[in-house]
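okkk here we go again. third time trying to get the manganese (II) ion bound version out, last two times i messed up the smiles copy paste (missing a bracket lol). double checked this time i swear
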Amino acid sequence: MVQVRSSDYSYGPLRAGRGTSGTSDVIVHLIDGTYELFRHFYGLRRFRKGEDLPFGAAVGVLNTVLQMIEEGATHVGVATDHVIESFRNRLWAGYKTGDGIEPALLAQFHPLEEALASLRVAVWPMTELEADDALASAARLAAADARTERVCIWTPDKDLAQCVRDTYVVQVDRRSKQIRDATAVRAKFGVDPERIPDLLALVGDSADGYPGLAGIGRVTAARLIARHGALEDFPPEVLGERRELALLFKELATLRSDAPLFDSVDALAWRGPGAEFAPLAARFDAPRLGARAAQAPVAPP
Ligand SMILES: [Mn+2]
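finally!!
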C-alpha cells in the first residue's frame, strides 16, 4: 500500500504511471465534490458542537481544492450531484434518494457548484447521472489523453474502484492517506477492478440502496467471480432464478463512463480564479479564500 504524502501531489513512489516516455506529464485530480461536502459538513458540525454555518461545508470543500492547487495540483475537476436522484431511481425503487439529507447540508449543494465555477475549477453538476458517473467519465477521458501521466480519483467510495487501471488510474482516500492501484483493489476486494460491479451486485450496497443476493457475502462473491468471471458468464444454475435480479444490481453498480465532459485535459488546467470569486468568498464568510486564490500557482501553459 502506497501512502499519500500530503505535500506531494506528483506521488513519487508511483511515478511510473502509464510508463511512456517524456511526453505525458499531466497528473489529473478528480474530486468527489458530494463526498467532500458531506465530509466537511459533519466534520464541522462535530467541531462546532452541533452548530451549522450556512456555507461552512462549501467553504471546507473550497479550502480543500485550493490547498491541492497550492500544493502543486495543476489539472483538477470536481464532480457533484446537482440532485441526488438519477436514472438509477427508475431501475430500482429502493435506490438512494435525497430524502433524509440534512436541509442545512442540501442547501449548500448549489452554492458549492457556483463557488467552484467562479474559482474557475472544472465542475460537473450531475442530474440524470450521478457524480460517480462523472468521475468515471472524466477518468476515462483523461486516461485517453496522451498528455496524461496519471489520473487520481479522490474518493473513498468503493464504487470507483471499478475505474482503477494498473498504477495509471488510481483511487486516493484522503482520510486514510492511501492510494489504491489495481494491485491494492485486488488485495482489498479479491477481484480485478473490472469485476467490482459484479462483486457489488452480489453483496449489495446499503449506502446506495440495493441489497445484493441474500446469503452471498464478500468471500463467496469473490470466489464465484474468480471461478466464473462476469455475472453474465456464470453457469445458469449458480444463481438460478436470482440471475435477473443480480444483473439488475450490476446495472446499478456499473458506472457510466460516456458523459462528454471535456475534449482535452487542457480543460482541467487551473488558470486562476474569476473576478467574482473574491466577493463570493466574502459572502460565504471566508474572505481569506479570495486572497489565497489570487496568489495560488496557475498551471504551466
Ligand atoms: Mn457511490
